[in-house]
Automatic annotation (TrEMBL), chain A:
Protein name, per record: Fe-S-containing hydro-lyase
Fe-S hydro-lyase tartrate dehydratase beta-type catalytic domain ranges (all copies): 8-177
Organism in which the protein naturally occurs: Sulfurihydrogenibium azorense
Similarity section: Belongs to the class-I fumarase family.
Domain of life: Bacteria
Amino acid sequence: MSNVKVITTPLTDEVIETLRAGDRVLITGWVYTARDAAHKRMLEDYEKTGNLPFDIKGQVIYYVGPTPAKPGQVIGSAGPTTAYRMDKYTPKLLELGLKGTIGKGWRGPEVKEALKKYKAVYFAAYGGTAALLSKHITKVEMVAYEDLGPEAIRKLYFQDFPVIVANDIYGGDVFEEGQKKYRKLVI
Amino acid sequence: MREIHFDEIVEKVKNLVMDAEYKLPQDFIQAIKVSVNKEESDIGREILQEILKNAEVAEKEQVAYCQDTGYPVFFVEVGQDVRVVGGSLKDAINEGVRRATKEGYLRASLAYDPLFDRKNTGDNTPALIYFDIVEGDKIKIKFAAKGGGSENQSKQAMLKPADGLEGVKKFVLQTIANAGPNACPPFTVGVGIGGTFDYSAVLAKKALFRHIGERHPDPRIAALEEELLNLANQLGVGPLGFGGTTTAVDVKIEIAPCHIASLPVAVNIQCHAARHKEIEI
């Protein structure tokens, strides 16, 4: 594992080029939340109007549906959801300028190819450690689709939010590389 | 006939759900502590420590361990000498879930219809409730919060009797390997073998209530549990799928008689948010 890299959003191609699968990264800045229902609606809206609910250029989407905030909290528990469910929508968003996604688990081949083509990265956050991760979120603003409840699009301000580069623009895959080292049994 | 009031059940179910969401079972925490010392990968050890820290914070601050507070599933054993007054048992359980969701700041995670508008039900009801009638004058309520990430990686197969033990082992291990990083390992793996198509899956889910390390009473099944746990940890998946030697902390199998033509097997993958808790009223 390499040293921790500190990056801020929005992301540029220059920053993306320095990131390799396995790198530990702390992200500071605004990111957008979206998961299944928001992705579906965003792309339906785009088909109809040619617009997305926010300017996606250089931005990062965090796949999360947080719990409601308790009094005194900025946000409730807020860990990543499984990323592959968004694979159907991700290449189009990357084409439109999205530079990073944060989730957990494997991405499909279509997303890995699109990451190379459009210069973007997929970061993995530690799934299930939602009470800890929420402490790195210091501001929340509603952006769109409020009726979707936990699936609405929100803007979150990250303060040193810890992630690992899972898929980079060079074809690296942290899960495949990591598991290979410990795989004694192939089924 | 012993009488239990609707309101008492509502209150107890509410507390049961909130407690389960905030505090992981002690046997699971203990298993993770043991794994920290055995895990071979650096990142794997770090993740296991983060899991312990997350459990500590969630319990201390009384917040949800995971943002996916899950599909509420109940196994309820109703004593035949007990009567619920003031409303139905089913309504009481759903009301308990509704209040836990609101008062406990849980995420509403159910879509009312699976195919069309997928509108959120807003309060995590209706819960899935399996009822069983037993002897006695008590009600035992077992609760599990089933997160979508690990439930999505669970599988069922109707194997042939000729596939036998080897076929079952292969299916279980393939399911674990495929679940990989998507389902937040280390897993507890529930396996149901026998019964019918649907009942094998119920058995797999039920198996997850057994304590970690507690083996099946049939020594042949107990040996299979240990063998599968050992093999699962050779798959290389590791904590959160980043590679390592802790892929599962236990494999628990339940069996049932089955049709002479069938060998049903179901694998219910449980992520590290292993929220299972039971109460007796």
